[in-house]
Amino acid sequence: MHNSTHIRGMIRVFAATALLAASLAGASAQGMLKEKYGDWQHRCDKPSANGVEQCILIQNVLDQSDLNLAVVVLRVEDTAATAEARKKDPNAPSVRRPVLRVIAPLGILLPRGLGLKIDDREIGSTGFVRCLESGCVAEVDMDNALIENFRKGKVALFAVFLTPEEGRGLPVTLAGFEQGFAQLK
């Protein structure tokens, strides 16, 4: 019972933040632009569910053939770590962990997933977790190694496949990432 309640809560948090990221990633981005850091935008909005301001770091990329990606970094509540912290101190603040979400357009080949290369170094790949009206979402927790790669790198190349043979890499500049990431709370 506890696990299913926990999972339902995680699904609600994921859905709300995925919809926020998707809405902020659209051409008519909602939310307020707080600052720009290189090609990254720091945008904030208030989700209606809890009224707490949610901020993201976002970069939209469009290639010559109109293939687009929205690369979003945000912090989400780590419910397990928050619960553990509040066992020790009921007034402890929420523990938030950084998440990288990439929203790719509908029509891409999902089984191949999303690949990532930073500068000349292969980082890895991940699957897509969900498709929404605005696109398909891939998501990974950002560990310290990935954050360091983003901070020190110059270009992140995100790869998607249109057919089993045709992969496409979209470059995301990392200039400004470190300053923007420091602003996410």
Task: Note down, in words, how this protein is organized.
The chain is an alpha+beta fold and 185 residues long. It has one domain (2-183): Sandwich (Immunoglobulin-like), CATH 2.60.40.1880. Helix content is 27%, strand content 42%. 25% of the residues are buried.
Strand count: 11
CATH class: Mainly Beta
Major beta sheet, strand line-up: 1-2-3-4-5-9-8
Strand content: 35-45%
Sequence stretches where pLDDT stays below 50 over 5 or more residues: 1-28
Mean pLDDT: 83
Succession of helices and strands: HEEEEHEEEEEHEEH
Number of helices: 4
Backbone shape: globular
Between the first and last Cα atoms, what is the distance in angstroms?
A: 32 Å
List the helices and strands and how they pair.
Blueprint: H1 2-25, E1 32-37, E2 40-45, E3 54-62, E4 68-77, H2 79-88, E5 96-104, E6 114-118, E7 121-126, E8 128-132, E9 135-141, H3 144-152, E10 155-161, E11 167-173, H4 177-183
Antiparallel strand pairs: 1-2, 2-3, 3-4, 4-5, 5-9, 6-7, 6-10, 8-9, 10-11
In short:
By secondary structure, the chain is an alpha+beta fold. The chain has helices at 2-25, 79-88, 144-152, 177-183; strands spanning 32-37, 40-45, 54-62, 68-77, 96-104, 114-118, 121-126, 128-132, 135-141, 155-161, 167-173.
Task: List descriptors.
185 residues, alpha+beta, Immunoglobulin-like, 7-stranded antiparallel beta sheet, 4-stranded antiparallel beta sheet, 4 helices, 11 strands, 27% helix, globular
